[in-house]
Specification:
Largest sheet: 7 strands, parallel, barrel
Structural class: alpha/beta
CATH superfamily: Glycoside hydrolase/deacetylase
CATH class: Alpha Beta
CATH topology: TIM Barrel
Number of helices: 8
Strand content: 15-25%
Number of domains: 1
Length: about 250
């Protein structure tokens, strides 16, 4: 069995840093790098892309709402076409900086409120998938498993990979538990690893409001901004490897 470990990185801004990107990039196999919308700036992008290159980590763009104050976790009402252009501009910014580092942008994974909206709203998902395809037909989409974003990419013929979350709770709808509700976050690395091992054995994900649901997974996300993210990522990689699971990027299979 193979599985990818991904993390949302490059989420600092100017002199302010978020998480420990250097440590995370020594553990994960794919990095979703902020593109200047919810976080990130040219120097942060450059530094994170360079670390990813030096660690042999596959790079994806991580666009979100242009909302530095809210860290991209608030829905900003916008026409669907404007959402697509916002995403395209952010992907282009990361591509430009990546060209200076000598790495390619292999996939796109949405951030925060935009990811949650595209998971539910097919029109938003379709518009974003179409924009990604116009930028680069070979660029993949990393989508939350079982969502409209995943289905939109599949319908468009875009290469799509499905992700589950190591440190987030699930609802029976397949959506993530909102961060302001009980059960939204899993902080114990051992608990997170045990849940993932059980999922990989059964294909069933526990939820807070019903019976476990069936999900597909090519990748596991550990949020880089969470407290203890490095310890959680390290524990998950070690536990999965001990179970015979090969940790490798979904782009390298």
């Amino acid at each position: 069995m193979h599985i990818d470990l991904n993390s949302d990185l490059g989420e600092g801004l100017g002199p302010w840093s978020m998480g420990d990107d250097a440590q995370m990039l020594s553990i994960v196999t794919s990095a979703n790098i902020a593109c200047g919308g919810h976080a990130g700036d040219p120097e942060t992008m450059f530094e994170t892309l360079t670390l990813a290159r030096d660690n042999g980590v596959v790079v994806g763009a991580h666009p979100g709402y242009n909302d530095l104050t809210g860290f991209g976790r608030r829905v900003i009402p916008m026409p669907v076409d404007e959402v697509a252009r916002m995403v395209a501009a952010q992907i282009g910014a990361l591509q430009a900086v990546a060209s200076l580092v000598g790495v390619g942008i292999s996939y796109v994974k949405l951030h925060g409120a935009l990811a949650n909206l595209a998971a539910q709203d097919r029109d938003v998902a379709d518009a974003i998938v179409a924009a990604v395809g116009k930028i680069n037909q070979d660029m993949a989409v990393l989508a939350i498993s079982g969502t409209q974003m995943e289905q939109a990419a599949r319908a468009a013929g875009t290469q799509v990979f499905s992700e589950i979350f190591a440190d987030r709770g699930y609802l029976s709808s397949g959506q993530l538990v909102p961060r302001d509700q009980p059960g939204a976050m899993i902080h114990d690395p051992a608990e997170a690893a045990a849940r993932l091992i059980s999922f990989l054995e059964t294909g069933l994900m526990p939820v807070v409001d019903g019976d476990p649901i069936k999900l597909a997974a090519h990748s596991i996300c550990v949020h880089g901004d969470s407290a203890g993210a490095v310890d959680m990522a390290r524990e998950i990689r070690a536990r999965l490897s001990a179970e015979g699971v090969q940790i490798t990027s979904f782009m390298h299979r």
